[in-house]
Amino acid sequence: MSLNKFTSDIIQDSLISIGEAMFETVQRTSMSPIIYEALDYAVGITDGEGRLLAQGNGVITFLAAMSLVVEETLDRFGKDSPLKEGDVVMANTPYVGGGTHLSDVAIITPVFYKGERVAFTVNKAHWTDIGGINPGSVSTVSTEIYQEGIHFPFVKIKEEGRLNDALVSMLEGNVRLPKSTLGDLFSGIAANDVGAERIIKLIEKYGLDAYRQAAREFIEYGERISLKELKKIPNGTYENSGWIENDGFGNGPFPLKLKIFISDDQMVCDFTGSHEQLKGPLNLSRTGLETAVRAAFKAITTPTLPANNGSFKHVKLVCPENTIVSAKSPAPISVYYEVFLAAIDLLLKTLGPIVPEKLPAGHFRSVCVTYISGIHPVTNNFYVQAEALSGGWGACAYHDGNRGQFSYAHGESYNIPAETRERKYGVLVEEYAFHNEGGGYGEYQGGNGQNLIFKVLSEEAYLTGAFLGYSIPTWGLKGGSEGSYNYFTVIRTDGVEEKYNIVTNVKLKKGDRIKLVTATGGGYGNPQDRPEEKVKSDLKNGYITKAQALKYYNVK
Amino acid sequence: MRVATDIGGTFTDLVFFEYGKNNEEITKIKVSKSDTIPGEFEKGIINAIKKIDLDLRDIDFFAHGTTLVINAITERKGSKTGLITTAGFRDVLEIARGTRPDLYNFNFKKEEPFVERYLRQEINERINYLGEIVTPLNETEVEPHLENFWEEGVQAIAICFLHGYKNPKHEKKLASYIREKYPQFEVIASHEVTREWREYERTSSTVLSAYVKPIATEYLDNLSSNLKKLNYEKSLYIMQSNGGITTVEDVKANPITLVESGPASGMLGGVVLGKAISKKNLLVLDIGGTTAKCSLIENGTPEIVTTYNIEKTKTQAGFPILTPVIDIVEIGNGGGSIAWLDDGGKMHVGPESAAANPGPASYGKGGTYFTTTDANVICNRIHKDYFLGGKLQPDKNSLKAAITPLCDALDMSEDEVAKGVIRVAKANMVNALKSVSVNKGHDPRDFSLVVIGGGGPLHGASLAEELQMPEVIVPLHAGVFSAFGMLMSDLRRDYIRTDVLLMSTENFPLITQIFKQMEREAIIAYERDDYQKEAITFEYHLDLRYESQEHSVKLQLADLDNLETNAIEDDFHQLHEKRYAFSMKGTKIEIVNYHLVAEVTVNKPVIAKVDKSSYTTDEACIAIEQVDFDEEGIHEAKFYHRDKLGPGMQIVGPAIIVEDATSTVVPPSYQVAIDDYANIIITRKQ
Fold first, then answer.
1. Measured between CB atoms, does A361 come within 8 Å of chain B?
2. Cα–Cα distance measured from residue B215 to residue B220, given in angstroms and rounded to the nearest whole number
3. C-beta contacts of B638-641 below 8 A and 24+ residues apart
4. Which of A128, B195, B491, B541 could be joined to B595 by an S-S link, Cβ 3.0–4.6 Å?
5. What is the pLDDT of residues B63-99, one digit of tens each?
């Protein structure tokens, strides 16, 4: 081997570091809380043909998106209308090209070196509002995509360096928070520029050939290492099913079917038999399902290594069209993330018993998103508070489940502090704490879910939310018991409590309280094997009650 | 005479400066080392004093830096701490921000909080974001919690109430209640640590400050009384993370300000050096055994950030601390960093380190891993006769045993592997240097690179080459660089307050009022330490953002008397553009934080010029041997001894300059000039 090997290693590390710089630019400059706090975005660098070289993810829902959206861009701007230097493409199409829902907007910038296209810098981020029937662009009762916001089907926001003013005006005229939306757009374009500039510098330093060789070797590296890990997993066919509990109209539950075939050099995930696409917005596109499958594969092969196209060469998705997890236009899709989590949950539930040392028991399986909109009681500004809530994780072979942790679909996401929330949205937070509703007993105890209770101070406000996992609890593993449920309630000023799981636009009055509850994760191992001192410590800390300790652990 | 002491993990250093009374030039520098005694750190200092028979009556100024606080935190050796917080919020500390940097690891384990749940107690009270009292506090409600804390052996109590940054009335009331009635507890309230918003970050900061308060207090009291016994009458000054010193009483009140005390003084050494040689823009790189740290100094000032995160890694969220800290990026890439291949055959260096024990393979102390230092030995950049200050010869057998597995796996020769390790280590350092410069809109070509630590001078020239920096400075006395920093810094206190306000002319009175209020606090604090109001200089900074953004950028105001909206706005747009590649003129600008820096200048000696060497350049040459300069090839290089080099001397590469603690590599295309202060200045040949 020659010393050039190290040049490749160094170029690969430099690409990862460029990805980090892009990631930071988006975080520090965007204007949607879902981007800068939930880090609901990803950045990526691909080669000139769309093969992923490096990516920075705040959340896992965009794992496959970075390369797929560039591949789709290349398809659409083919020989007849090739991309030029200075072009920037914008896309939020859900059904193809790494799409999720309309709120997630991708910005794609081709990078040219001496007139030749050598890379793409790309990012995709969740903008707080993209128009549509409801503030926050999410509805649990939409029946067509047209109700969910404005659609940019791979259009040029910049053409040879010139901003497309007409498109900017269209955007401005169709969203509820135009300033913030434009801020997010410019932040996304800037992040790609930051990456592009550094990639060109990198090529100038090492030369185009070395850069291309490094890219090729990096992809081979991803392939080699994931294949090696795959070989360690027992061959076989494994089968399981899951459920989408509701289509937003009170119908359901609807089955998800999965068969996984594992051989030495391939893992095939076949979702054939899953229910056909739903009338309501609880649908996932095939391209979104691709991310779920890749994430599960990554979790059991190379969880800590940087991802590239090679990493996923040996995993294959099979699914017919028009199912709940492969929806086609014009299916509504704004609540895709709940279906995404159900798909991941099903994948892990199927794989868990095969590799129980690599995967935990079931977690709370919902993003637990709520949207509250209203007029701020002090500033009189219109606001949309969109937030995801953390919950309980399943226990695993090594430790108890995490308490108060965001869902698998998240990652480097941050909750909204009460202190910034109260100023921004004019609500008053009364409780942000773990509950002990029970469940998750095992040698390792599932992590507690939590409550978030806050009071509305606006004259009136509207609540939209979708919490799956309200009727099917989190699952235990290797003898651990089931956890609990997700749900939310509205407590009216007269004390009447209304319970919800999926709902759009509940009218709230000043003084009403909203109580959000996330589930406790599943337990791992037989509860009888849990050491008494651990049970006692949980009791002392109030993670479990006296009655639970006695009933499930036989500890007084 | 002045003394600076620095407690490290292994050694306690005492540096002692004599200087001319008239011109204040330093005439003599003496170093005394003693072993650090864990648990009784002050003894290390006393031993170092006794070792050189220092008479403390002659000392005008005694400064001290310590890793006590950061070690207590990372080793979990602080005191048992209880937390009192607003009803409904006891789990804020454990939920943290709910984040999981380790995205695809579903067996992820969140870090344990510093206070267990049964010691996190709630009390009825509530203040809203406007600072209005919604639910009044009845401080006697705390009684049962205190009783419980006492039974559980709690020593320190942290108090953090919601919106305490805006209105600290309840925190103040409860803190003084506990202090008066139960002096057995060390108590600290969040507003005494920070006045910035975000309850988790503030709670975490307060808890960590409480956690180290008992040991910091005990240590500082012991140190003060021991110094007094040795007849030291003047004040003892402590180095803080913000790049300034302060009094013992001030630190005891909020010891978390010491968290980066050690590295901060090293970076300040850079500032002092820069002043002496009139270089205002520096990148300082300190390569030790385990890590490399770097910091950017622009216009003679290091950047101060107020959000610091301890134990943050690529897979863990770490613990935030809201305290002013010199912005330092640290990576696991030092001389002892281990080279390894991952399952896919990719080479990595660090973050695992062979540290000082067993150390790199070439130390022959049982180290079985191949490290960056070992790679430099193989390339003969560290001369065998001057290895570890000449005390030891590199252990060839151990070196061979460590490198062979890498050679086999990569099918490469030893030379090639060694060069590869240096290249990968260098790329790590380049990325770290870029993250403090390029990523923040600075062009490295406008900066000089200052390299310190055992590993800095070995890599300086090639890093400068990569970043196209015009020169590398290897300071004289790199070993006492931190001490320089400590002795030459001023007293500094930072006051930060969150109060979100639109940036507009109508709000100027409010802005001025907030700063004036902080000025008054600063004056009171300094007067307590017997400093007059007139001696204080103030600097005003605003953390600004575009409306709707979350994160802000720090902008310094020229002064408070002539505020001008247009000027501030223009400056902000420019700063935003520089840092993030775009600006949004026409968008409203918000003030998030007000940051007041209050400094009192202390008399400082100046670094003296050095006499010319009594040797010629030829006489300073101690050997001529083959050295592998990687891309520049293998060359006959002259080895010089730094002690024999003096001002005005010139050396051309290829050369190596050896000294006890390090070696400076001068590649073939580089040259060296020794400046008037005996610093090594490396530049590219014309």
1. no
2. 8
3. B639/B383, B639/B386
4. B541
5. 998 888 988 998 899 999 999 999 999 999 999 999 9
